Amino acid sequence: MDMPIKSADDLLNNRDIDYGTKTNGSTLLFFQKSKVDTYKKMGEYMTRTKDKLPSKVEEGVNKVRNSKGKYAFLIESTTNEYHNQRSPCNTMKVPGPNLNEQAFGIALPDKSPLREKINIAILQMQSDGFMQQLYAKWWYDKGECGDPNDQGKDSRKVGLSLSNVAGIFYILIGGLVLAMFMALVEFMFKSKKEAKRSKVCMKRAMHCEARLSIHGNSNICSNSDFETFESPSPPSPVKYGSSGHTKPSRTLITFSNTNDHDQKRNTLV
Question: What is the residue-wise DSSP string for 106-169?
């Protein structure tokens, strides 16, 4: 809903929107006796147009609903909130602080014995939250327009739903995926480092690191997991003849056909 006015000053200076309050009511009396310049001017205007003021609250509320946004009705905040919760749900309260804060009281005869009992009972209901429960029950639980934030008729009964907390799950899932990715990167880095240090293949180093992560024991990897692979040393030279000259040995390895599993090895000198 559009918000053409947000304060009493906006209402006073807006020529397109008329305003008023209940005739001969406490609200009109407040504006007439106010010493605040804005409220005083509003009181003077409503006094001049007193014949146009609604005589009942319901009449003023209906005038707001039929004015198509061209009339503002000034009433007590609790009465305002009550009518905003009634069908056809096309009225609203101007956001912001109330124009005037005044407390209501219960009038009793002078020196009445009920005075102290009533005061204690009211204080007890306020401290127990019973007054707030009554307010919620008759204004919103039994209302026809939902909560005051205009979130739908039954939104006050919905509570938390998946759509309300979906962002939390998105953050948790994103953090879990990131943590798994970082753990994998760290695992690969450590495996590569260990493979280079121990001169073993990457697969064997990863296997050992995995067992180490699962069992948590530094001695879980046997020596065979980190066997070093060194290149074979060249064959020793073989002496021949009386002169003592040496001649490098030559090794010839021959294999039988594919049906024979034996291997033959001959050395030529």
Answer: ----TT-THHHHHHHHHHHHHHTTHHHHHHHIIIIIT-SS--TT---TTHHHH-S-HHHHHHHH
